[in-house]
């Protein structure tokens, strides 16, 4: 169903990293610092986009084997030393959130970033006012693409899943999670080829805000 046949969403769930905020420089720095620690070659930004969709506890064992907890420590040390100073809202993200807030649309975040870190970043940007649910890695029984974190977010919002609830994210794990729970997936950023399979995909937050303004 194209946007022209849609009404305003009854709620919106967002991914966080590279959906509402630009964290690629931070993630690239943390990953490549970790790889260097183990004497491994660095990854390109595109490699990192493909390989870091899952939460750390689900992805690091694939790359670092039984030393993944050591890798996690190196990664988190770099990340926490730099994340607030490098945290940058993506163009149009704040306007999009304000548009939804003006429409009294409930909003939540469902991220594969550790829950405590996610909430610290949201507070740092003073965006707490927009979200009734902030669900990160470890807050639910499983992380994206499993539906558990989205279901927890919806429970926190006091809502049942439906296609009238939009799930906006930049990576396949977001769209898979949305489909698993019964929400409408909206790829944003077009950084993954799979986004081309979704006619509702948008280039950025600015385009999505413009669409909302016309519904």
Topology:
Elements: E1 11-14, E2 21-22, H1 24-37, H2 45-51, H3 56-64, H4 68-86, E3 88-89, H5 93-102, E4 107-114, H6 115-124, E5 133-137, H7 148-157, E6 165-169, H8 172-181, E7 184-187, H9 205-214
Parallel strand pairs: 1-4, 1-6, 4-5, 6-7
Antiparallel strand pairs: 2-3
Helix pairs in contact: 1-4, 3-4, 5-9
Descriptive overview:
The protein is an alpha/beta fold and 215 residues long. The protein has two domains: 3-22 and 89-214, HAD superfamily/HAD-like (Rossmann fold, 3-Layer(aba) Sandwich); 24-86, Orthogonal Bundle (DNA polymerase, domain 1). The protein is 46% helix and 14% strand. The chain contains nine helices and seven strands. It has helices at 24-37, 45-51, 56-64, 68-86, 93-102, 115-124, 148-157, 172-181, 205-214, and strands at residues 11-14, 21-22, 88-89, 107-114, 133-137, 165-169, 184-187. The strands form two sheets. Strands 5-4-1-6-7 form a five-stranded parallel β-sheet, with helices on both faces. A two-stranded antiparallel ribbon has the order 2-3. Helix 3 packs across helix 4 and helix 5 (93-102) packs parallel to helix 9. The longest helix is centred in the middle third of the chain and has 19 residues, at 68-86. It is globular, with a radius of gyration of 17 Å. The relative contact order is 0.18.
């Amino acid at each position: 169903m194209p946007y022209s046949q849609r009404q305003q969403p009854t709620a919106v769930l967002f991914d966080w990293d590279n959906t509402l905020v630009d964290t690629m420089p931070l993630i690239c720095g943390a990953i490549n610092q970790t790889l260097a620690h183990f004497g491994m070659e660095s990854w390109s930004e595109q490699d990192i986009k493909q390989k870091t969709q899952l939460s750390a506890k689900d992805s690091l064992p694939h790359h670092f084997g039984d030393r993944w907890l050591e890798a996690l420590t190196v990664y988190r040390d770099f990340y926490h030393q730099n994340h607030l100073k490098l945290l940058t809202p993506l163009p149009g993200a704040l306007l999009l959130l304000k548009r939804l807030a003006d429409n009294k649309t409930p909003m939540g975040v469902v991220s594969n970033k550790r829950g405590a870190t996610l909430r610290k970043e949201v507070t740092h940007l003073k965006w707490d006012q927009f979200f009734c649910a902030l669900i990160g890695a470890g807050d639910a029984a499983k992380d994206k693409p499993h539906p558990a974190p989205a279901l927890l977010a919806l429970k926190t919002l006091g809502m049942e899943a439906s296609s009238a609830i939009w799930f906006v994210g930049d990576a396949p794990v977001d769209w898979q999670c949305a489909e698993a729970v019964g929400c409408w997936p909206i790829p944003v950023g077009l950084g993954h080829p799979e986004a081309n399979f979704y006619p509702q995909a948008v280039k950025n937050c600015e385009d999505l805000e413009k669409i909302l303004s016309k519904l």
